[in-house]
Amino acid sequence: MSQFNGLDNLDIQVSALEATLGDAAVVAASFNEELSTIRTTLSGTQTDVATLEKGLSRGLRKAFDNAVFDGARLSEVMRDVAQTMANTAYSQALKPVTDQVGSTIAQGIGSLVGAALPFGNTGLFGGAKTASVAGYDSARSAVMSASERLGNGVQTAGPVSVVMNISTPDAASFQRSNAQVAAEMSRALSRGQRNR
């Protein structure tokens, strides 16, 4: 009977150990996420520090060149060094803000221009409508020769010309839709080849 009590105690201890290991795994995963966040932050900080270092080095070199080659006084050199440090720190501090404001303004202007300049009757990239080449008829007429438009059916060998006007609020949305644009171009070219 004592063997069974020993096995029961062992079973209880194993269950407690499993629970503890499960909690440790959760803590380790959380710790790993925090380390990843810190690594990303430090990488960005390292880039910022490198830029700051380049700016300071440039300013120090200019100040020492003034002292050695131009005979500037030490007080002027130190003032130049302090001014360079202040300007570099100020530029680095404002860079994220100015980048974000510039990006926001560019996206707003792009959205306004994209909405104001639709392609054909579709609001190409400007709304919920899908991209098209303004229908089969416009693609067909763009690649038809003059004799085909007159209806005499004369086949002429000539280059296929397809014009696509694309307006988009920003480059990223255009890049995301490159497969759609390529598919529409392919369709228009194949229509042109069939109607030559």
Poorly predicted runs = 120-136
Radius of gyration, whole Å: 34 Å
Tell me the number of helical segments per DSSP (H or I, 4 or more residues long): 6
Mean pLDDT: 71
Question: How are helices and strands ordered from N to C?
Answer: HHHHHH
Question: How would you describe this structure to a colleague?
Answer:
The chain folds into two domains: 2-105, no CATH class; 135-194, no CATH class. Helices cover 76% and strands 0% of the residues. Helix 1 (2-69) crosses helix 2 and helix 3 packs across helix 6. Mean pLDDT is 71; it is low at 120-136. With 196 residues, it is an all-alpha fold.
Annotate the secondary structure layout.
Blueprint: H1 2-69, H2 74-116, H3 135-143, H4 146-150, H5 171-176, H6 178-194
Helix pairs in contact: 1-2, 3-6
